[in-house]
Specification:
The complex is a heterodimer of chains A (about 325) and B (about 300).
Chain A (H helix, E strand, L loop, with lengths): L1 H21 L6 E7 L4 H16 L8 E7 L4 H13 L4 E5 L1 H11 L6 E6 L12 E5 L4 H11 L5 E7 L3 H13 L6 E7 L5 H10 L4 E3 L4 H5 L1 H11 L3 E2 L3 H6 L3 E4 L2 H17 L10 E2 L4 E4 L1 H6 L6 H6 L1 E2 L4
Parallel strand pairs in A: 1-2, 1-3, 3-4, 4-5, 5-11, 6-7, 6-8, 8-9, 12-13
Antiparallel strand pairs in A: 10-12
Helix pairs in contact in A: 2-11, 3-4, 7-9
Chain B lengths: L2 H29 L7 H16 L5 H24 L5 H20 L3 E2 L13 H5 L4 H25 L1 H11 L1 H6 L4 H27 L1 E2 L7 H15 L8 H21 L7 H17 L10
Antiparallel strand pairs in B: 1-2
The chains are: A alpha/beta (about 325), B mainly alpha (about 300).
Chain lengths: ~325, ~300
C-alpha cells in the first residue's frame, strides 16, 4: 500500500514541478497550442499562426511563450492537453483541428480563457460560433475548384470524389459539391469509405467507372494514401485535383485551394488582437478563407497533356518550385 | 487555485470517469476471461445516444440511464453472437464494434457538439442547486466521484450475491458453473450486458463533460481499459483484501496521471506515447518485483 501512495505522490509532485516550470512572468503572454496531430496542413497552420503573431508585432520569447502539444490523433489526449492549459492559466488557447479545439473550449469553459481555433470547416456545427472563442474556418472554395476544372478540362462531364462518411468536413463538402456541380455542367460520382484501408479500392472503382477526373477534399483518410491513388490514376490517365498546396506537391495536377500558412496567419492576427486587448474573442466573429490560391504541378499537367490557359498560368503558383 | 492542485483535480476527474469503463473491462477480461472488443463501439454508442438526446432537450440524468440501456443491448448482441451463433469471442466483439460504428453515426447523424446553452449533468438541477456555488472543475470532480463510488458499491454488492459469484466463477472455472446446473453461456451474456452498459455510461459522461460526440472517440478505449485493469491489479497484487473494483479504479487514475505527467513534462509532443509506454512498464515492473515468473494476465 505504502509503495503505491509513494508512487502516486511522486507522479503528482513531478507534475507540479513541470507545471511550475512552464508558467512565465505575467508581462509575457502564455499561449497553449493544442494540435490534433502531426500532419503537413496542420503543421502549416501552426507555423502560420506564429508568423501572424509576429506580423502583428509580437515576438516569441519576448512578448509571448508557446506551449505546443499534439495529441497524436487521440481525442482523449486532446482532452487532457486542454485541461493542462487551463490549470496552467494560459492567456490564450489555440486549438488546431476540431477535436483539439472542442477540447480546449470545454476546458476553458469555467475560466473563460479565450480560444482561437483553426482548420475547422464548420464552426457553427462544432458550436464554436459563440462564447469566448473565435478562429478561422478552412471551408473549401468549392466553386473556385469547379471553375478551375471546367477551364482545364472543357470536355469533362464527371468528377469522382472519395470521402470518409464519418468526417463531418467531408460530408459537408460533398453536399456543396453536389449542389454546385450542375452549375458548371458536372456530375459528381462519390464513393464513401469508412477507413483508410478502403480508399485505394474506391479509387479502383472510380477508375473503372471512367470518371473524367478526380477531385480531393481535405479528407485525412484519402490524403493519407494520396500517393498510391496517384499511381493508379496516372496509369489510367485520369487527372486528380487537390484541395490544397501540399496535395499538388505530391502530384495532383492543380488545385484552387487553401494555403494553410495563410490560414494560420489569419488566426495569428486574430489572436494578437485578443492578447493586446484590442478586442475579445466574443467581439470577433470567426473568419473564412478570403484568399485562396491556384496551385499547379506543371509536370503532372504535362503528363495528362492538359494545356494551361494563359490567364490561369499568370496567377497560378507552381507547387513544385523550390 | 494552485496550478498543481487544479491539474491533479482535473486529471483525477478523468481517471474517475474512465474508471466506469474499466469496471466493465474488469468484468469481461478479468472475471469472464473474454477479450471484449465491442468496447470500442459501445463507448461512443453511449456518447452518441447522450448527444442525440441532449440536443432534443431530454433530462441530462435520464440520458445516463438510456445510454446504459443502449450499451447493454450492444453487450447482448456480442453475447448472443458468441454464445448462440458460436462465433469466437474476439470476432464476436469485432462484429459488434464494426456494426456500432455505423449505428452510432445513424443515431447522432454525424459528429455532434452540444452548445453551452444545453444543461449537462454538471450544471442541471439537482447538481446545479446543490453545488451551484462551486466552480465547474469542482463540480465535475464531485459528480464523477459520486458516480464512480455508486457503481463500485453496486458492483461490490452484486459480486457477493449468488448470481455474482456464478459470474466470477464463469471465467475461472466454467466446469464448476456447469456442475452447479447453471448455463455458463447465460452468465457470459449477462457479464457482457453489464460490462457494456458500464462502458456506454462512461461514454455518456465523457459526452456530458466534453459537450461532444465524435465517431472516432472509441478508438483505443479497449487498450486503455486493459492497461488500466492490468496496472490496477498489478499494483494491488500483494493485497488480496483490496477489491478488484478498487484496484481498477486506481489503475484508471494512475493511467490518466501518467498521460498528464508526460504532457506536463513538456517533452516533444511526438514522444508522448513512448513516455507513456515507459511509465507503464515501470509500474508493471515495480509490481512484479519479487515475483518468480510473469503471470499470464499480468
Amino acid at each position: 500500500m505504502k509503495k503505491i501512495f509513494t508512487f502516486v505522490i511522486a507522479v503528482l509532485m513531478l507534475v507540479s514541478l513541470a507545471a511550475c516550470g512552464s508558467s512565465g512572468s505575467k508581462d509575457v503572454y502564455s499561449i497553449g497550442i493544442s494540435q490534433y496531430g502531426e500532419h503537413p496542413s496542420l503543421d502549416n497552420c501552426r507555423e502560420g499562426f506564429l508568423l501572424g503573431l509576429e506580423e502583428a508585432g509580437l515576438k516569441e520569447g519576448e512578448d509571448f511563450t508557446v506551449d505546443y502539444q499534439n495529441a497524436g490523433f487521440d481525442d482523449n489526449i486532446a482532452i487532457q492537453i486542454g485541461q493542462n492549459f487551463s490549470a496552467n492559466n494560459v492567456d490564450l488557447m489555440v486549438g488546431i483541428a476540431t477535436p483539439s479545439a472542442t477540447a480546449c473550449f470545454a476546458a476553458a469553459e469555467d475560466k473563460n480563457i479565450p480560444v482561437v481555433f483553426n482548420a475547422i470547416t464548420d464552426p457553427v456545427e462544432a458550436k464554436l460560433d459563440s462564447g469566448n472563442v473565435t478562429g478561422v474556418s478552412d471551408k473549401l472554395p468549392v466553386e473556385a475548384q469547379l471553375d478551375l476544372i471546367r477551364t482545364l478540362q472543357p470536355e469533362a462531364k464527371t468528377i469522382g470524389i472519395i470521402y470518409t462518411t464519418s468526417e463531418p468536413n467531408s460530408v459537408s463538402a460533398i453536399r456543396e459539391y453536389k449542389e454546385k456541380a450542375p452549375d458548371y455542367g458536372f456530375e459528381i460520382v462519390e464513393i464513401g469509405v469508412t477507413a483508410q484501408s478502403e480508399v485505394t479500392q474506391a479509387a479502383d472503382t472510380l477508375i473503372s467507372k471512367k470518371v473524367d477526373c478526380i477531385s480531393n477534399l481535405t479528407d485525412n483518410n484519402v490524403v493519407g494514401v494520396l500517393a498510391s491513388i496517384l499511381d493508379k490514376t496516372n496509369e489510367a490517365g485520369i487527372p486528380v485535383y487537390g484541395s490544397e498546396i501540399e496535395q499538388v506537391k505530391i502530384g495532383c495536377v492543380a488545385s484552387a485551394g487553401i494555403d494553410y500558412i495563410e490560414l494560420g496567419k489569419q488566426a495569428g492576427r486574430l489572436a494578437a488582437k485578443v492578447l493586446k486587448g484590442e478586442a475579445t474573442c466574443e467581439e470577433l466573429p470567426y473568419e473564412t478563407v478570403t484568399e485562396y490560391g491556384i496551385y499547379i504541378n506543371s509536370e503532372a499537367l504535362a503528363a495528362m497533356s492538359i494545356e494551361l490557359p494563359a490567364d490561369i498560368a499568370d496567377k497560378a503558383i507552381e507547387a513544385n518550385a523550390e | 487555485m494552485n496550478v498543481f492542485l487544479e491539474l491533479a483535480e482535473s486529471t483525477i476527474t478523468q481517471g474517475f470517469i474512465y474508471a466506469l469503463l474499466t469496471y466493465g473491462i474488469y468484468i469481461t477480461y478479468k472475471l469472464l476471461d473474454f477479450p471484449d472488443l465491442s468496447v470500442d463501439g459501445s463507448f461512443p454508442l453511449g456518447a452518441a445516444v447522450t448527444a442525440a438526446l441532449l440536443i432534443r432537450g431530454v433530462n441530462p440524468f435520464l440520458t445516463l440511464v438510456i445510454a446504459m440501456g443502449a450499451g447493454a443491448l450492444a453487450g447482448l448482441a456480442t453475447g448472443l453472437i458468441h454464445v448462440k451463433l458460436k462465433v469466437r469471442d474476439l470476432l464476436a466483439g469485432i462484429i459488434t464494434m464494426t456494426a456500432l460504428f455505423s449505428i452510432n453515426l445513424q443515431i447522432a447523424g454525424s459528429n455532434l457538439n452540444i452548445g453551452r446553452d444545453v444543461d449537462t449533468i454538471f450544471v442541471a438541477a439537482p447538481v446545479g442547486s446543490l453545488l451551484g456555488g462551486l466552480s465547474l472543475i469542482h463540480r465535475k470532480f464531485i459528480v464523477s466521484l459520486v458516480l464512480v463510488l455508486l457503481f463500485k458499491l453496486i458492483l461490490d454488492l452484486y459480486f457477493k450475491t449468488k448470481n455474482g459469484m456464478l459470474l466470477r466463477a464463469t471465467g475461472d472455472n466454467a466446469t464448476l458453473v456447469t456442475t452447479l446446473a447453471q448455463d455458463k453461456g447465460k452468465m457470459k451474456i449477462l457479464g457482457l450486458v453489464i460490462a457494456n452498459a458500464l462502458v456506454a455510461l462512461a461514454g455518456s459522461v465523457v459526452c456530458h463533460e466534453q459537450r461532444s460526440f465524435s465517431s472516432t472517440m472509441g478508438t483505443g478505449q479497449m487498450v486503455f481499459g486493459l492497461a488500466a485493469v492490468i496496472i490496477g491489479t498489478t499494483i494491488f497484487k500483494k493485497f488480496p483484501g483490496v477489491k478488484g473494483t478498487t484496484a481498477v479504479l486506481v489503475g484508471s487514475v494512475v493511467y490518466k496521471c501518467c498521460i498528464q505527467l508526460a504532457i506536463s513534462l513538456g517533452l516533444p509532443a511526438n514522444l508522448l506515447k513512448l513516455i507513456t509506454a515507459v511509465l507503464f512498464l515501470v509500474i508493471l515492473v515495480i509490481g512484479n518485483v519479487g515475483e518468480g515468473k510473469v503471470k499470464r494476465n499480468a
